[in-house]
Amino acid sequence: xxxxxxxxxxxxxxxxxxxxxxxxxxxxxxxxxxxxxxxxxxxxxxxxxxxxxxxxxxxxxxxxxxxxxxxxxxxxxxxxxxxxxxxxxxxxxxxxxxxxxxxxxxxxxxxxxxxxxxxxxxxxxxxxxxxxxxxxxxxxxxxxxxxxxxxxxxxxxx
Length: 158
Known about the structure:
This protein has one domain. Helices cover 0% and strands 47% of the residues. The protein is built from no helices and 15 strands. The strands form 4 sheets. Strands 5, 9, 10, 11 and 15 form a 5-stranded antiparallel beta sheet that branches.
């Protein structure tokens, strides 16, 4: 899947394996500084909110003003939120954050994505997105996973 980012649209759908992004009609890949990450974090009923900070998958901290956080809002009911704020963090601009829940033996939740947009000279943050998930706590079921895909580009790409 290729992520498209432009002045009027910034769309990323289902989780993919592509490591390229289209910004205002130009395709950029790893050789241009694009980094696509995919992380899965187990969520356990009764635990603290989980998110992802570079190098620390269990922190509630975020990537500057961009984030992906899962919180238990009722016992075994989770709400994930995400935002790609177009900020530069650890040398990369966060232009896409997608989240979804999964659990072996069940269909995945809907994938929701926040994508920043570029007008060719500046970036606009994407909106906050959210997705819910009810855990299956039956004996023998594996833990629910909170999945996060981020797309990061070189700060000089507009």
